[in-house]
Structures
1.
Amino acid sequence: MKKFSHSENLKKEDEIMFFLKFAWRNIWRNKRRTIITITAITFATMITIIMRGIQLGSYEYFIRTIAGDYSGYIQIQREGYKDDPSLRKTFIYSDEIKKTIESISDIIAYAPRLYADVMISSGENSYGGIIYGIDPEIELNFSNFHKKVKQGRFLNKDSSYEVILGYKLFENLKIKLGDEIVILAQGFDGALWDMKFKVVGVVKLGYTELDNSVIFMNLKDAQELLSAENRVSVIAILLPELGKIEKVRQKLLSELTQKELVALSWEDVMVELKQSIDLDNASGVLFLAFLIIIVAFGILNTISMSVVERFNEFGISLAIGFKNQKLVLIVFLEIIFIALIGILLGCLLGGIFNYYLIKNPIVLTGEFASAYEEFGFEPKFISSLQPRIFINTGLSILIVSIISSIIPLYRVYKLEPLKGIRFI
Amino acid sequence: MTIIKTENLTKIYSDGKVEVVALRDVNLEIMQGEFVVVAGPSGSGKTTLLNQIGGLDKPTEGRVYLEGKDITQMKKDELAELRLRKIGFIFQTYNLIPVLTVSENVELPLVLLGIPERQRKEQVMEVLNLLDISELANKKPNEISGGQQQRVAIARAIITRPSIILADEPTAHLDSKTGGMLIDVMIKMNREKGITFIICSHDPQVIQKAGRLIRLRDGMIEDDKKIW
């Protein structure tokens, strides 16, 4: 390997500084063309950041809402529960597990839940249902179930033998608040058990399947009904941000002493949500890729013109001792300058817009709003200021700018001095 | 000492159908410190000869030696290095870089040579003083006259202290008074610095001041006369 002495490094630095100055002045030779190109890059960067901001902001909001209510950001469950969500795959909710969870500072809340398929009947009407055995006090700070109560009230810590039903199940059973229903279930011990419960509330979760079947009850009642004392199906965990999932998940995996327990992310648990986000994300990325490609042609045009109109000057430069590589370096620096100015301006403007949208979300009305509300979401467009939006957008546009300049750079690299000098 | 030697130098341009012989078996020897003017009508091969000597073009046949080294066999990068260190070019259109100031244009070859900034600045001022253009140091090429631009081009050519300067019709775009002054400057550089000049020109006042006059016709040397 060639070693450079200190003075050689200084010479290189000196040369680079001169070339930087040279390249900077070159880009302002044709101010109008440079400004148009920078504007195009700024616009593409800004649009990309705004669109990605809204997309990722919405995903964050969906994940926060849906995962918060159902899976948590991370979920502790027994190995195999995901594929066979039966009572046999429940586990003891021990103090040791609680201690492990509470020892991890990034975890802001956790909620033990027991799920089971049951039969619910009232009078002559019987339907299949799914029990959500929850700790009402914990859920108040964890999920939004309590906000979705349409009639009656939510459970409380003293609730005993009380249930809240999905509104469609409630309608199907043809009952009213305060009525008693009977729940028949196969317990952890394999025996069939039934218990009476009083209906104290009705929820509308926004998911037809759940609204047709969900039965919220106090965790201890569910454990009693299912002969599953101190057992839970899952422990849902909330984190302050999505970015910490993997770190906390790994920590949980290493610190949970019960070998049969696993810590899954919301992506593993809510596969369909993940897939629909991925699909939407891919279509968004595709659209933005088209936008960036259009800008790439603009950059190609600018750099090609700027190179061709300087062929004569390049020829002279080669004649006085420039090597082609150094001319390529100068043109490359010009591309970097133009791209960076556009990207920085675009990031700034896009960032300001996204910040404004976070502080003042666009509230939807009409059919859009109904569709959002149907699924239990607030009808609003929010945004995000995740650093990855800026980094990915900036890098994509920079890379595309460089790629689109390969042809003009290659022409400079191959230029012969005489061809340049004779170029008119 | 021989600085340039050509052996059977031939250059034929061809577009696939028609062949044009620009140089035919040119044998030439130029000694260090000579002030050579290559004259001849348009199409006689003056510029082609200069391009061959400067390593800007490859001959169809024959050899060019610069300080004993065969430059016709050199690679692109070797030729660039050779032009940077040994050869200065002056073109008929001044060909300065418009975004750089006069001093930066002159400084550019020193940057390529890796000379430290302080030393560069000193050398540039020295050369600008020598050519009486130091007051133009911070001006851009479009702010000065043609004659001044050509002086800057000379400054850029001599800044690296080359063995030889090749000038192609350096007075073509100048009025006769400015052209005359420019030739005087080149003679001064030749005498004071010992730099070898090869100037292609059909300008009578340049030809008049030649130290050696080579006349070309149809790509061949018609006459070669030492004057001083």
2.
Amino acid sequence: MVHFAFLDWFWLVTFVVLMIGSGALFYRLGKRSEADFFLAGRGLPWWLPASSVYATHTATDTPMWVAGVVYKYGLAGMWYGFFAAWCAVSAFVSTKIFRRSLAYSQAEWQTLRYGGMPAELLRGWVAGWQVFLNMFILGWVGIAMGKVCHFLFGWPPWIGLTFFSTLCAVYVLAAGYWGVVMADFQQGIIAFIAIVFVSLWGVHAAGGPHMIIDKLHAMGLSSMLNPFSFTGFAGGDFPVAWFITMLVIGILGGLGMATAIDWFPEAQRIQSARTVKDASWCIWAGQALVVTRNALWAAAILGFFVLYPGLTQVKDYEMAWFRLGFETLPVGMIGFFFAAIVAIHLSTISTHLNLGAVYLTRDLYHHYINPGADERKLVWVGRVGTLILLLGSFVFGSIMENITEWLIFALWIMAAGVWLPGILQVVWWRFNGWGYLAAWVFNLVFSWLVVWVLPAFGVLPHLKDYQQFWLLMLLGALVFIPVTLFTKAESMDKLVKFYVMSRPIGWWAPVRREAERRGLL
Amino acid sequence: MSNELKMVIGMSLAYVTSFAGLLLAYFSYRKHSRSKEAGK
């Protein structure tokens, strides 16, 4: 249990008022139109969405995740942050293509890239998927805050889950994305200062870098310091094959767009940047901050490890970074640290409240239910959508402790089957809507078969993660490539329009020639 | 709750919402196609 002195309460109350106030201040801008409520009018300089990318990906559960992989694999575990490679490539490839399209959302992008019924079905599918995904993440991150508050104050987890998300909803409901991005900027600064300060403080408390290294050598755990410490080429918990798979997923994935693992908050930030160049730099800089943050956390977790080497249960060591702060900081700084944790939490919650509402409003309501809705009505629907996501997240959060591990696994499995189509839709003109839809639907069937059904009947052994990834990718390709080739290509009018607008890379020669023939290039 | 049941719940929640979106899109597309044809 942690006890707050006056100065601790001062930090906490001041920061919370500033965070909520800075978001709510933009109420007038947020209510102007749908574009303002969801994209801040597409007029942001690169550093604002960049701070939002970083702040969003810094959640309450992130230091728990870093503690988990460092305890399990040492510094090699940091390769699990392979998504940074995805963004580093994407920033100068698919980010530009997506920004030029002017789609509000990844669901809307489907109807710009494809035409006819498959495009509409894909838009509905992706919108439904994104509503679920955002609500799920809200519940997941929310219950992590519940755990932190339980650890600190002994509160029942539901209080931490509901109280801070509700506080956050105040400025998201009022100012939409304007509130999100402005508060994220402030929260990102507070969080970064706290991460640097607490991590360095923790390393110091463990005796400094040399002492940590010496202790790890003395414990016979030098391998924890080696980022290339793998368990063989194909066997063990962390083989080279898994490392290569992550690199391939990250580097090639950046050529396309993801709808499953992590690229979706970026999509909104890309569209809110004022130019294509701003969009590129916001993604690159946001991820650069994420990588820097991971490095600081990893060093602090190693410090915690040498202080508490005997912890073997996840529940004991996942709180490592929080314990470093609360157990070693002087009185008066505890409140500052907790305020930073609140900042970390609110920045993630606000993003997913607003992002889920984009799909409910722009794609499901505006596109399918009421295409004639005026701007005022759309802003209000956006607010109702935000509220639905908030309430849904409480339900998810309350059941999450039981299903999180499996749900994350399920999300990962689904990502395997749509990874390659996500790239092909950007780089290959002939890839069509039926092919992409088939990839999504059949991946459901294949993931069940490969992961559960066939191993249960002894037809297939239980495969490692990287083996499942490649097998699911191959099985998916055996369906979506024939489906693409046996169904009609998208109409040349549609493709030329998309090409001229978005300028994709790759195999687009027939479309480029047609665009040139029409005098559009 | 068994691990298998947790898996079923997790996978089902994700796909139920996606299919709901797909069905909404389908009915909306059909409605618009019909009204287009009627307008011809």
